[in-house]
Each structure stands twice: as C-alpha cells, then as structure tokens.
Amino acid sequence: MPRRPAFPAGPRGIDPDAPLHKHVNFPVPFLRPVDPNHPKPETRGEDQAMKQMSVLGALTGLSMSELRGLHKYVAKVMMAAHQTKKGKMRSFGVWMIVGSPERGLVGMGRGRDENMGRARDKAFRHAVLAMDYVNRFEQRTVWGQGSDLVAQWRSTKVIIRARPPGFGLQVPHIIHRIMTACGIRDASATIEGSRSEVDVVNCALQILHGGYNPPGFGSGTGGKGRKQDKGAGMRSIKDFERQRGRFGVVVDKRL
Q1: Which of 160, 173, 167 is CA-nearest to residue 209?
Q2: Which residue of 128, 160, 222, 239 has the fewest C-beta atoms within 10 A of its own C-beta?
Q3: DSSP conformational letter for 63
C-alpha cells in the first residue's frame, strides 16, 4: 500500500493524523562489513593490566619479562558475606606468595575485592612490592649449619634447618612454596602450634628476610640487650648470628 508523501511526520509535521512514532522505511544493514585489514582494537582490560605492570616495573626495577616470570602461589582464599537490604554482598580475600629464584626474592601480599580476579591482581601487586632479599648459603640453602633457625608469630612457631647438598626440601607444603619461590633447594622445617597459612608464612618470612629481632639482641643499632637467664650472662655475637641466620654488623651508636 503506497504511503503518503509526507510520511513519516510527527505531531508538528505536515500531516496531523500521522502516528507519534517514526518508521524507517529504507533498507539498513544490521552489521557493517568488517575490513579484514583493519587491526583489532585492544581491550580496556589489557591496557589497564599493561599500565599496572609498567608501574610495578618502575617501582621494583624488574623488567616486564621478569615480572611475568615470577613464581606465584596462592596461600589462602577467604570469602566474606555482608548482609544488606540488597542481599548478601560478598567479597574475596586472597593471600599470594610471589618470588624470584634467580634473584633470591620472596614476599607475600593480600588483596581484597568483590571480584576474585581483581582480588588476585591486588594480591600479586602487593606481594611484588613486599618482596625482600633472602641471603642464601651457596645459593641453595639457609645459613646456620648445625643450628636451628627459630621464629614465632602469634601461636605459630617455625623451625628451619640448613641441610647438605642433595638433601632436597623436607618441609611442610606451605613452606615448600616459599622456599621454591626464593630459590632454596636444601632445607628442612617443622611447624609447632597453629598451622594457619598466613601465620606460617609470616613466621617463615621473619627468618628468611632477616628482619626478625630475637629477644636479647638489643635495639639492633647499638642498644643494650637484656639477659636471658639469671647468671648465664650475655650471649655472644656468634650465638645471635646462628639464630638470625646471617652475619652481624657492627654499627656505631652515633647515628
């Protein structure tokens, strides 16, 4: 049926009896033909990931290939739900261990977000920024041959022992991930008390990073240390070196 010459027209058009809605009465393709030579546009997520990796590289001094080649292990995943008027609002918490066996670096980070993927990305970035150097003996084991390296974090106690070449890693699985990430190949370890993954990792990192200050060591900058047992006297610097797993450094009191 032929249409009027003024069709379509709105309420202010030529034809006052025309409908309020408009009609398009000529063929329009739904999809435009795609040019095969036109490059595909990059997605927004890839651009954001590249920017974050470039920022991490600038802060840590690692190249893009080194950041991609880091060892990553998820230590713990936790989900929490908060009841609101809109329902249960869930959020995820991820603890991740990141390390470089070639450089002897290891660290742990925590990320929290409503999306699991974004929580993992946050945990990875925080772990990379928290990486610290692990002083390894012969690039294969910890210092302190013949003595135990002991640290305590809350109710968790970790004991790490140096072992000869070819011994391997006779350690619990969570400590195995830490030592694999930092490049330790020969060691044994024991966990006493609580076996919470986060507490065990924090306790083990105290020993490996060397920032652990055992009782009696003083302030670490020349301050006095207290006696451990009455009548036993002060411990020697060799005792502290064995307990800390590294050599002591004499620092002048005037800082």
Answers
A1: 160
A2: 222
A3: -
Cα–Cα distance, 86 to 89 (Å, whole number): 8
| 105-113 and 132-133 strand pairing | antiparallel
Q: How many residues does the chain have?
A: 255
- CA pair distance 187, 174, nearest whole angstrom: 14
Cis peptide before 27 (omega within 30 of 0): no
Question: Which residues, other chains included, contact 157 with Cβ-Cβ below 8 Å and sequence gap of 6+?
Answer: 150, 151, 191, 192, 193, 203
Q: Are 79 and 90 in contact (CB under 8 A)?
A: yes
CA angle 71, 171, 105 (to 5 degrees): 30
**Under 8 Å between Cβ of 98 and 128:** yes
Structural domains in the chain, sorted by start: 69-133 (3.30.160.20), 136-213 (3.30.230.10)
Long-range contacts of 158-162 (CB under 8 A, 24+ apart): 158/189, 158/190, 158/191, 158/192, 158/200, 158/203, 158/204, 158/207, 159/189, 159/190, 159/191, 159/192, 160/187, 160/188, 160/189, 160/204, 160/207, 160/208, 161/187, 161/188, 161/189, 162/137, 162/186, 162/187
Place of tokens 């991609």: 68
